[in-house]
Amino acid sequence: MLEGPNLYFPRAAVKLTVDVHPLAAADEATLRALAAGLGLRSVRAGAPLSGFRQRALVRVVTAVVRRVARESGTTRLGVRVRATAEADRLVVAFPWRDRARAQALGQQVVAVLDGLEGGGSLEELVAAAAAVVRDTPRGPGPTTVRPRVPLVAVTGTNGKTTTSRMVAHIAREAGHHVGWSSTDGVYVDGVLVEPGDYSGPSGAGQVLSRPEVDFAVTETARGGILLKGIGVTSNDVSVVTNVTADHLGLQGIDTVDQLAEVKAVVPSITRRDGWAVLNADDPRTLAMRGVTKAQPWLFSRDPDSPALREVLGAGGRATTVIDGWITVLEGRGSDLLLELVDVPMTLGGLSRFNVENALAAASAGLAAGLGREHVVAGLRSFRPDAEHNPGRMNFFTVPTERGDLCVVMDLAHNEAGLEAMVEIMRGVRAPGGRLLLGLGAVGDRTDELLEALGEIAARDTDVVAIGHKQKYLRGRTVAEMDALLRAGAERVGVTDVTSYPTELASLQALVAQAGPDDVVGLMCHAERQEVYDWLATLGATPDSAEQLATRVRRAAAQD
């Protein structure tokens, strides 16, 4: 039961994933007869389990849903039936207003399909199903919330947590009481009030139900959109950071283009008088201009991007970097907000992803009506540490007998994230230093992605130690994870990869062998607090903006 806007409809919908193997495998004559009984013409039945057969079944199942709905009293019903990567599986969706009756319709559609596969009479099966639906009480309506305060909704593959945190921080600088929902929990004015993953509709509902909140920021993840829908009817400002390969092979999303279609649901429900903040450097994100009614506000590291020229010429806005300044463009005018060196998250412009996150956050803050001075102040004061951005590009100085070590902690949950992390580690490494990486991933990634992470780690760093995420194996075994990560490393000739049962153990082993010019990185997800606590026992301290700038300058001096 999708409670709000979703991949299929801009309102609450029922989603069925249906196994139609007997029909997919039936002979062509059987399928043609069924299509004719449903009033369908020119159906190309196709060979059993073929692509043509699957497309024929899309038409057949659509007709079954509409027939049951019509005979149960629903004269008009939107229906979307989609093929999947499996020839005998379809996804069926239709909007709903009355929960119990909508559930009954979904169940009875399946009952009709089961009966047809068993050779039952189409007319009898539909009549029986329609009677059940008619006799079912309506039940309550969707829980979709109509926002009563300004709402900024952030989605994307990488950077959505950091960007949404930055927007919430800027809004607090402007004096708002800010509610923020995310994969980490629900926060009000920077205080965690509900721990857990609240990147779905329940998070938006939690934030918007609190009377003290007068400005809301929601982090919207793919899983929430696919499994629950978006919990609000609309947003005032949407932000899409980028779309890259992540979580493919789950919930029927097998390609990056399909993933982009999921993320595009967020700008598709942005108010007409609002703004869609889109990454002009990412083609799939830029293409979302075509699905939104809102005005486009692009961000790009390239001030000469053709996309920026096009949008500015059509009356839109853009945020970019010119001569090291974050600059807002509108028409032929420009407004220089502040220099990148004054934005701690960007490490003086070294962190490419965080430059983009800062551009997105500045755009969203201004688009939401926050004052220019508050946007500047928020970007200046938001730091890459455990207080402002826990688990994302956190830097620590760790004292040891051999000298002070640099430790970097980041989620780095996919290929693009790991490449960005390594880029940052390289950018703060002292002359002659090594890169040591604690490598790990959650178990619901594809084999190809896990091997790619192993390859990137082994290719781009000097020492790799696997730290397993026991809480997030998600159906795999430690041995499987180990084998796939090692297989990737072996593709680039690296075989001396050690393994540890936890993230913390891998970090401890790497710190024990690191020298003062080295940089130790940890892909941390499962044991963030345990890592913070252990670093504290060593006397580690978060790096200040000044310390980070010093590291960057020292590293740059060797190039």
Automatic annotation (TrEMBL):
Stated name of the protein: Cyanophycin synthetase
Mur ligase central domain span: 154-364
GO molecular function, one term: ATP binding
Domain Mur ligase C-terminal: 391-523
Transmembrane region(s): none
